[in-house]
Amino acid sequence: MQGRLFNNLFVELDPAAANGGGSWRGLSNNMVQAYSTDVLPFFHGKLSSIECPVYLDIGANTGAFTLLAAHVPDARCVAFEPNPLLAESLKRSIQLNELGTQVSVIEVALGKAPGYATLHILPDAHGHSRLDRGFVARTDEQIVEVSVTTLDKVMHSILLDRIDFIKLDVEGYELFVLQGGEATIRHHMPGLLVEWWPPNTEPFGYHPRKIDELLESWGYTKAGVSATDVWYERKE
């Protein structure tokens, strides 16, 4: 199966990716279209602006952002996806695009502190799976216990020389991922593409303005990208 990222950029996909509910839509003639067609070109442009970019895809789903590496020479990506079904599908798509030396998948959730959490997986929308905090349970959802760690702890073990960009979309958990990655982010100061959507953050007890305040205190400035996505970069 083919997946269209945007314009004339295509990738090969594991067929199960079409049912993920978060990265792809519009199955037709054995092809699907990526969501975020306004944000993907923006992020692709950032990746393409430097040589051999290194980026993290946090909340990778089935990998529209991860698979941008297929169209950026010598790009390297570390993708984080705690949903086991989505992670396995993403791994198969990485193999289909021969990205095994460029892209790795870590099946863990990121947060403010190490531990465990309950992941609620909706059968009709795996891509909207959420860590347990104040959401109304559905009788048809699958509940999986997942390991949680911090970005700082993971990066200490991976030992990347640099991180140029991070895409962060974790259904309202963004603030806690950032808090658990303070040392990493303040050291590398990567460009950050972050979902900014109050309905997702409210069940976790905060408004996305808290993200703005935190990153501003770390030396970032903010610019809008879409109705639900914000770009942060180092202040000049």
Structure, described:
There is one protein chain. The protein contains 7 helices and 15 strands. With 236 residues, it is an alpha/beta fold. It has one domain: Vaccinia Virus protein VP39 (Rossmann fold), CATH 3.40.50. The protein has a 7-stranded mixed β-sheet with strand order 7-6-5-12-13-15-14, sandwiched between helices. A 4-stranded mixed β-sheet has the order 2-1-4-3, with helices on one face. The protein has a 4-stranded mixed β-sheet with strand order 8-11-9-10. The radius of gyration is 17 Å and the shape is globular.
Quick take:
The chain has a single domain (36-234), classed as Rossmann fold, CATH 3.40.50.150. Helix content is 24%, strand content 33%. The protein has helices at residues 39-48, 84-96, 151-158, 174-179, 182-188, 198-201, 209-217, and strands spanning 2-6, 9-12, 24-28, 31-34, 54-58, 76-80, 103-106, 109-110, 115-122, 125-131, 142-149, 165-168, 191-195, 220-224, 229-234.
